[in-house]
Amino acid sequence: MISIRSSYHLIDAAILWCDLSDHEEEILQVDLSQPGSLRKHFPQWPRLHDHVECIYDAILNGELPATYLGKPITSDSHIHRVYYSVRRTDLLVWFVRSHPDQKPAFLFTQNADHSECVSLHAHLAKQAKLEFALSRLEQLQQTYAAATEEIASLSTLNDKLKARLESLGIPPETSEVMHNMLIGAMLETTLGKNQNGQQQSIYSSQAALVQAILLRFPRVEGLSKSTIDRRFADARRLIAQIKRG
């Protein structure tokens, strides 16, 4: 009969493994802290001692996880093995891996059809892939968090540099003032005269230049006549202010 318990002490699991549930009360009256007590008191059931030792060795070798009051037991733990507990699921997996010929009734349904069940190997392979994917996801999340923090730091630094440039009277390259300065310098160079008083451009005036732009870029958003005239006027006004000092 399958047990519905979620965990077992070593002696409990061994009793069930040996199918000695009818003698459980008698067995548990023995002082199990004494080495060899099971073999001494119950020589008629040698497998009981052997099964307890088998489970204990599996725990020591790291094949079977064990706990005490919900905390994992390690090689450094100083807890008597009488108090060790093993989870039902861990015990079942251990049997499948280490004792595939053993199918104790307290863990396995006898004569059950497992033809459509997923094999343990396939389950463990899927579990390994899932654990790897979760680990990779955690790494990516950490990388994303670090990148986000770095971007925020760079943005803060950029704002400080902009403020510093403005305090020194140097406009940032992306500022409206810089755009107007560039446009104004271009207009002065394009429409102005050289040192000999000669016209430097094929365009006789700003109006002619605007007309040429409209003909070359018809119906382009942001290049309407009113927009160009306004931006050119702002740019030339800025250049004039710079010249005056």
Q: How would you describe this protein?
A:
- Helix content is 57%, strand content 4%.
- The protein is mainly alpha-helical.
- The protein has a two-stranded antiparallel sheet with strand order 1-4. Strands 2-3 form a two-stranded antiparallel ribbon.
- Helix 1 crosses helix 4 and helix 7 (176-191) packs across helix 9 (225-244).
- The longest helix has 48 residues, at 120-167.
- The protein starts with 6 loop residues before the first strand and ends with a helix.
Counted by DSSP, the helix tally is 9
Distance between the termini: 100 Å
Q: What structural category arises from helix and sheet content?
A: mainly alpha
What is the tally of beta strands?
A: 4
Helix content percent band? 55-70%
Short recap of the structure:
By secondary structure, this protein is mostly helical.
Core attributes:
245 residues; mainly alpha; 2 domains; two-stranded antiparallel ribbon; 4 strands; 4% strand; rod-shaped
